[in-house]
């Protein structure tokens, strides 16, 4: 009983503090601390969406991304991004399909265990937006891809006390360009990529 009461009080304390945490987040890009950042893998997710036989949209996720970001809010064009994603982590909530997707006819995770995006150009398009162009390597093929990125906010994470910045990004690729052609075009060639990412500032 005491343990349950303690847990309830702790949860209530976190909930009560939530508005304070939210107020600490700053959505102004100019306030971002310049420097080097490491991707917060636990709070970053890559999602892909395809059209399934023209009947419905179907999506999956790739958790476990790692990477780095170098950024200066006064010189966005100089930003550098390098992110890698383990292919074997693909999840669609369907275990049978997940096993199929990591196989030779799809992503072939054993031969090509990682997909990687390395930025080559960053162009500011709005107060909080930018086009991030880079080389995407997937299934052993490297091609240029442009992601439309939006800055969400920055704050000191109240849990680990690390200064963290967050972004959302979206782009479209043709999977057959990367040699992933199974069932195309019944399962659409055009694939939408949506990313939510958090980056933690590294010590100077």
From TrEMBL:
Residues 36-200 form the Lipid/polyisoprenoid-binding YceI-like domain. Keywords: Signal. Residues 1-22 form the signal peptide. SMART domains: YceI. InterPro entries: Lipid/polyisoprenoid-bd_YceI, TTHA0802/YceI-like_sf. It comes from the Bacteria. It holds the Pfam family YceI. PANTHER family: PROTEIN YCEI. This is Polyisoprenoid-binding protein.
């Amino acid at each position: 009983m005491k343990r349950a009461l303690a847990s309830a009080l702790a949860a209530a304390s976190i909930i009560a503090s939530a508005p304070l945490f939210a107020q600490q987040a700053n959505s102004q890009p100019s306030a971002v601390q310049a420097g080097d950042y490491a991707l917060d893998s636990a709070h970053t997710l890559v999602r892909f969406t395809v059209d399934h036989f023209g009947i419905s949209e179907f999506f999956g996720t790739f958790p476990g991304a790692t990477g780095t970001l170098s950024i200066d809010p006064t010189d966005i064009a100089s930003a550098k991004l390098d992110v890698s994603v383990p292919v074997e982590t693909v999840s669609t909530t369907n275990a049978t399909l997940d096993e199929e997707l990591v196989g030779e006819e799809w992503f072939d995770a054993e031969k090509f265990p990682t997909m990687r995006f390395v930025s080559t150009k960053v162009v500011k398009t709005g107060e909080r937006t930018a086009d991030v162009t880079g080389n995407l390597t997937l299934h052993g093929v490297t091609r240029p891809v442009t992601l439309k990125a939006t800055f969400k906010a920055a704050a000191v994470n109240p849990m680990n006390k690390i200064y963290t910045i967050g972004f959302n990004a979206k782009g479209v690729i043709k999977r057959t360009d990367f040699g992933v052609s199974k069932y195309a075009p019944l399962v659409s060639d055009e694939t939408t990529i949506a990313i939510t990412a958090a980056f933690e500032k590294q010590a100077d």
